[in-house]
Amino acid sequence: MKSAIALAAFGLVLLSFARHADADVFTPSSTNFTWVGPVIIAGHGVKLGCQGTIDAQTNSTGALRVTSVFFSGGQGCSLVKGSGLPWTATATGATTLTISKVSFILSGGLCGPGVIPANLGGGVLAFNAVNNFAGCSIAGGLRSAPPIRIVP
Fold first, then answer.
1. Helix/strand/coil percentages in the chain, nearest 5
2. For 80, which of 39, 68, 91, 139 is 20 to 30 Å away at the CA?
3. How confident is the model at residue 22, as a pLDDT?
4. Exposed e or buried b for every residue in 85-94, given b needs 16+ CB within 10 A?
5. What are the tens digits of pLDDT across the range 38-81?
6. Residues 89-108: what's their mean pLDDT?
7. Which residues contact 10 (CB under 8 A, 6 or more apart)?
8. What is the topology classification, in CATH, of domain 25-151?
9. Which long-range contacts (CB under 8 A, 24 or more apart) does 123-128 make?
């Protein structure tokens, strides 16, 4: 009986490792890249149409983290600041991901932290996170250079 329980426990451990080995990752690995494109940010009585620049990097295992965020273009955009960096991204499928710990300062108020669900295809990061950040929202479509994709 004890050997059957031990064998079952060992099987669960192996299954756990197999699931981690099959996890979706970002590619290319060990790469710094930038997403750039239009972003709409709203909250605290303000709505801005800006150009977003998101610097990120993948490590050797294909994990991704956002290291800096800048907004420019329209009036007030340069006053929006990313907060709580780095943010972490998790691939949730072949073309889907979540970005966690996202927060930004808008019109003197904090938006976040929150989670942005997004799609990634053809190097374009697309998201529409409405009211995910204590009444704030952010939406955009940004292209990466070099193109980043998810490998299942």
1. 15, 60, 25
2. 91
3. 57
4. bebebebeee
5. 999 999 999 999 999 999 999 999 999 999 999 999 899 999 99
6. 94
7. none
8. Porin (2.40.160)
9. 123/147, 123/148, 123/149, 124/37, 125/35, 125/37, 125/54, 127/99
User: Cα–Cα distances in Å, from 87 out to 5, 13, 42, 44, 54?
Assistant: 41, 30, 20, 22, 11
For 43, half-sphere exposure in the C-beta direction (CA atoms, 13 angstrom radius) is 25
Instruction: Give the residue among 111, 150, 107, 130 at the shortest CA–CA distance from 40.
Output: 130
Specify the residue for token string 């003197």.
108
Q: DSSP labels for 50-62? A: EEEEEEEEE-TTS
Evaluate if residue 36 carries a pLDDT over 50. yes
SS3 22: coil
- CA proximity to 149, closest of 117, 127, 121, 126: 121
